[in-house]
Design goal:
Metallo-depent_PP-like; 3-stranded antiparallel beta sheet; alpha+beta; about 15% helix; signal; EC 3.1.3.2; Purple Acid Phosphatase, chain A, domain 2
Length: about 270
C-alpha cells in the first residue's frame, strides 16, 4: 500500500463509536466535515427534517380527557407520532378492574390511534394486579391489547422503559424540574418534565410544596398536552398547551440542546 492509498484510507475511516453517533439521524443527508482534533475527515449526519411528537400521559376517559384529545386534534401543530407516557384506561379505578373500560378507552382513543402511530409505555394504572379476584399476572390486560416490538431491543417485557432505582414521582399536573443537582447547581444535570395531565379520573394534583423549590422551574395544575419538536441534532422545542386556552396558545415553552453536539447552558431557571 503506497502513501497515497494509506492517506485515503485514513481519511474515510470511521470508528465504531462514531458510527453509533451517526445512527441518531433517520432522515438525513451526509456531509464530509473536517475534524481537526482527530486529524481525519468524519462522516456526520445532519438531520434535515423536523420530527414532532404529541406528548400526553394519564389520559383516562373522563370529560377532561374528551377535551384534551380534541384540543390536540384542532391544534395547528400536529404530531407525526404520539408519545404516551403511561396510565391509559384507569380500569383499576373501577369495581373488579372492569375490563369493559379497556374497550371503551380503545374506542375513545381510536380517533387518533387509527391515523397516527402511538408509542406506548405503562404506568401504575396498567399494573392490574388483583389477587383478590384471581388476577395474579401484572400488566395482563395491557400486554394482550397493546403489542410493541420489544424483542428488537433484546428486552423480555413489552414495556418501553427500564429503571434500577429511584424515587417514585407521580404528579397529576405539569411540572418542569431544571438542571440543578442539590445541593450544588450542576448544568450537566438532566431536566425532568412531568406531564400527567391528560384528564384522568383522579383529578388534578393541587397540593404542592410551598414555597416553590428552586429546582422547580415551572408547575401548574391544569389539564393539557405537549408538542415536542426535534428540529435537528442540536435543538428541540417543547410546548405545553392547556385545555382552557385557544388551540394555538402555548402556555409554557422551552428549548433543549443536545449537550454532545451543542454544549451550552440550557437551564430553564430564571436565576441561572
Amino acid at each position: 500500500m503506497n502513501d497515497d492509498t494509506l492517506s485515503r484510507s485514513r481519511m474515510t475511516k470511521v470508528s465504531t463509536d462514531q458510527r453509533e453517533r451517526l445512527a441518531m439521524s433517520v432522515e438525513s443527508r451526509r456531509t464530509m466535515m473536517e475534524t481537526e482534533d482527530l486529524g481525519v475527515s468524519v462522516l456526520q449526519d445532519l438531520i434535515i427534517t423536523s420530527k414532532l411528537l404529541f406528548v400526553a400521559g394519564d389520559l383516562g376517559q373522563t370529560f377532561d380527557s374528551n377535551i384534551t384529545l380534541p384540543h390536540y386534534e384542532n391544534s395547528p401543530k400536529k404530531g407525526q407520532a404520539v408519545l404516551f407516557v403511561g396510565d391509559l384506561s384507569y380500569t383499576d379505578n373501577h369495581p373488579n378492574h372492569d375490563n369493559n373500560k379497556w374497550d371503551s378507552w380503545g374506542r375513545f382513543s381510536e380517533r387518533s390511534t387509527a391515523y397516527q402511530p402511538w408509542i406506548w409505555t405503562t404506568g401504575n394504572h396498567e399494573l392490574d394486579f388483583a389477587p383478590e379476584i384471581g388476577e395474579n399476572k401484572p400488566f395482563k390486560p395491557f400486554t394482550h391489547r397493546y403489542r410493541t416490538p420489544y424483542r428488537a431491543s433484546g428486552s423480555t417485557e413489552p414495556f418501553w422503559y427500564s429503571i434500577k432505582r429511584g424515587e417514585r414521582i407521580s404528579n397529576i399536573a405539569y411540572t418542569v424540574v431544571n438542571g440543578i443537582c442539590s445541593p450544588v447547581k450542576d448544568q450537566s444535570a438532566p431536566v425532568y418534565i412531568t406531564i400527567g395531565d391528560g384528564g384522568n379520573i383522579e383529578g388534578l394534583a393541587t397540593k404542592m410544596t410551598e414555597p416553590q423549590p428552586k429546582y422547580s422551574a415551572y408547575r401548574e395544575a391544569s389539564f393539557g398536552h405537549a408538542i415536542f419538536s426535534i428540529k435537528n441534532r442540536t435543538h428541540a422545542h417543547y410546548a405545553w398547551h392547556r385545555n382552557q386556552d385557544g388551540y394555538a396558545v402555548e402556555a409554557d415553552t422551552m428549548w433543549f440542546y443536545n449537550r454532545f453536539w451543542h454544549p451550552v447552558n440550557d437551564s430553564p431557571s430564571s436565576d441561572s
